[in-house]
Amino acid sequence: AVVSTQSTVQEGNGALAKRRIDVGLADFGFAPGVRPSAKLEAARDVLRRAAERIGTWEVEEVLLGVCRESGWIARLEAGDAEARGRLANVLAAIRHVGELADEGELGLARTAVEFRHWLDVAKEGPASLPAPRQAPCAS
Fold it and tell me: Which residues, in sequence order, are bridge partners of residue 16?
């Protein structure tokens, strides 16, 4: 089954227009008569919950929620050393995205742009990022 991102009819003039991918994911419609697989339905549910959290949850928590609820973290944790290394990279990247959003007071879309820019210019992968910053202890 495929998410319907194909042409749609424009209101007003009836002309066909290609839908943007975000529109297809927002309504997550399927072509008529197509029955999605259980895995695709589960993915749709994870993405819908994430979309509902945007704006009320921290960016980092939204991303961690998607990774946890999809089962991806559990699968990587149960894997071999290479899989656990990938998990470390994913968690480091999510942490970095969260820091970008917090420090710049950025929304999700701007944070994605800034992270993409960082990836383009960085000489190292996310796993080599420093550990998260700790708040100073009050004395």
Answer: 9
Question: Which residue do the tokens 């383009």 mark?
Answer: 120
Strand, helix or coil for residue 49: helix
d(Cα 118, Cα 112) in Å, to the nearest integer?
Answer: 10
Q: What is the pLDDT of residues 17-73, one digit of tens each?
A: 565 655 656 666 666 777 888 998 898 889 889 988 988 998 899 999 999 999 999
- Mapping DSSP to helix (H, G, I), strand (E, B) and coil, where does residue 80 land? coil
- Maximal C-alpha separation, the chain: 68
Give the predicted TM-score (pTM) of the model: 0.68
Beta carbons within 10 angstroms of residue 65's beta carbon: 15
Residues 6 or more apart whose CB falls under 8 angstroms from that of 107 comprise 55, 101
Q: What are phi and psi of 97, to 5 degrees?
A: -60, -45
